[in-house]
Amino acid sequence: MSTLYGSGDAVCRWHNQVQSHHTQSIAAQQHFDPSQDFWEGVAEQFRDDPFRRGDPLLDKLEQEFLDCRTLVDIGGGAGRLALPLALSRKKVTVADSSKSMLEELRKSCDEANIQNVEPVFTLWEEAVVQVHEGALCSHVTYGIEDIEKFLKNVNRYASKHVVIVAFMKSPQAHLGILWEAVHGEKRVHLPGVPELMDVLWQMGLTPELSVLDHLGPHVYKSDEDALHDLRKRLYVNQGTEKDEKLITALQTNLKSTKEGLELANSDGRISCIISWDN
Fold first, then answer.
1. 217 vs 229: CA distance, rounded Å
2. Which residues of the chain, if any, have pLDDT below 70?
């Protein structure tokens, strides 16, 4: 058992790891604003066609929630998963703490004429919603400090089935080399699936774990796209000394391919599904 983030129980280790990550992230920002909507300006990128076919994750979720007529999508954002799932269900509630994400959700609902999706602006740990038969939480858990309270609320509002989608390692683990090059310190990564399973077991739950997909590398269309994205993810302001370090680091961490510019160390990300019945 790792003692890197404390020798206590799984919930304590999770909290300490997330708190250390957040402390490091705040220190790296010149003008940290806790009220800022992180997704403002990029939320539109998370929209998708509600009527699409051939999405492996959607196909898997349809199977998982086959007996659930109502769903709550926790941190469901712009509705990339909630909207297609709503097409075959009585009601879907999307709970999210980003106003910009929920605005994109409303736009998508209007454009697709989907009327059975309810947006709720809330932190999930504090959420009060109606009980649904199923609960979905896709790529949200990593940065939750009070993971026990979060998961208890998941169970409170799901009467039948819960599905969590998460990466084996935190979604930005591949940026560790760039973080060190820019900020001069080793990155504290957020917890992933192994740590989450430890927490669930400690809470007395018996989840099933399956691998959904091995994702390919992250590919950018241009140097400009890479810089724009990575500046935001690494908290780098344009024109600064750290920006120069990032530009220099990208000279050896972006590889030109037929698809575009491939980011080093971003290949082999493993997407998993964790599920249990209530």
1. 15
2. 1-8, 34-35, 37-39, 41-43, 46
